[in-house]
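new request in #modeling-help
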Amino acid sequence: MGYYQEQIETMGRDEMSALQSERLVKQVQHVYKNVAPYRKKMEDLGVEPGDIKGIEDIEKLPFTTKDDLKDAYPYGFLALPLKDCVRIQSTSGTTGKRVVAFYTLHDIDVWEDGCARAIAAAGGTNEDVCHVCYGYGLFTGGPGLNGGSHKVGCLTLPMSSGNTERQLTFMTDLEATILCCTPSYAAFLGESAHKEGLTDKLKLKAGIFGAEAWSEEMRRDIEKALGLKAYDIYGLTEICGPGVSFECEEQTGMHVCEDHFFPEIIDPSTGAQQPLNTKGELVFSCITKEAFPLLRYRTRDITMLTQDPCSCGRTLTKMRRLMGRTDDMLIIRGVNVFPSQIEAVLVGQGYPANYLIVVDRVNHTDTFEVQVEMTDEMFSDEVKLIEKREAELLAGMKSMLGISPKVSLVAPRTITRSEGKAVRVIDKRKI
Amino acid sequence: MIMDQVSVFVENKPGALSEITGALAEAGIDLKAFTVADTSEFGILRFLSDAPKKALALLKMAGWVASLTPVVAVKMSDEPGSLAKVLKLFAEADVQVEYMYAFVAQEEGQAYVVFRVADPDGAVALLESSGAITVASIAK
């Protein structure tokens, strides 16, 4: 449907490459000069800013990884003095894995442009009421879509997450036409609306759903339950937040805002750049951001890129639906979960790390169970003591992860070990 | 008297109890009394036997999580008021009973009640000093 920045969104390939080249050359100079850890990486590879003459030279640049960000926490990858920054956002992860991202006014502008493009592509105009129930705060979901909605001129409902009853009241009373949240929450809202007999009162026409992977089947169910067309959106805090890429009405993948975020697919084992329509790890370079301009950031997300013509008229490169991860990170109810975090809680409370994470999706909502093998340390002949230890584990996991698993105590040696190595995750979700 | 009770963690699934009792039977261990505490998620099998240390070692070898807990076994006549008498003594002395279970003795008209308390020695002393109650061995 509508374009927000038509000239960019429908730009010819040559023109786009020229724009990207110009921006990358400038950005590499900025990063080399101001980001010590990245300059060191370039020096180690023997690459100088002068070697980067255009976007085709991007392969010469070193990658940035989540570990690099962790090592440099919090200011190492900051490219401008703090006085030039106006905002911080952060990932949902824990101390060990947390990423803090910095924004100048310009960076927020770039980010919100991406979200505005997504809303416009979903048919949003200044006639719409845009209901945002992504979390607001450090999480980028709420602030990003909120800003994009302002830019498009929608009447914005900054609902944030939670309190489903109030969500439905505002949605129906104020006749929201666009809904922004995670797909699983959208499914839950659909069910709740049905239960409350509110389905007929909904005026929704479009939904912009992201922050977790979802299936085509789930999309159709949500569309039916809420009477809207569901659009996927992608982003990550390291790059800016939602709006790095967004879906159009063709619903066959997400157009990347490649005038700001240059996408590549690499072979995760060799790092070699892969041709279009080849599956591999998605890598982004921020070619316009000022404060936190990551270059060749490895997302660990697996997908493929395509430049096949799109019926929407956009020429922006499209990334297909996410096809998995290269690491062991799980996204459960929109929250990033690493098995190592579960392990840290167990070990921290004095127990061996014998556990199994079981994730499933029931009625479009993720279920999250952590099975913990009973040990001598945890055992007691008294039920209340075992239950107390179980509650402490649950509290520890909730505080570590931000979401609550169901903790189940199982008999020792019941967790499958293959070739001496335990299977830590069973993900039954069909995405 | 104070006896060693074996407690075993039992996951809520069919066959778990049968596996444990089967292993004990194979080793010729005689169960004197037992009880199962259950929650919605798991259970704890607690039992008295003629060879608690052997039973514990055997279960641990087989991979079960188990422990030994000293409990107080009290012999009382199998008639109304016996248990009430003991519990009254405990209540007056502020002895908290975490759990208890009972079984009928082989001797005619006698019963045993097993108490789990924080201080078993104190409880035995209390019962013996009351004079009214026999704290006796059940292992014959």
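bot summary: The mean pLDDT of chain A is 92.
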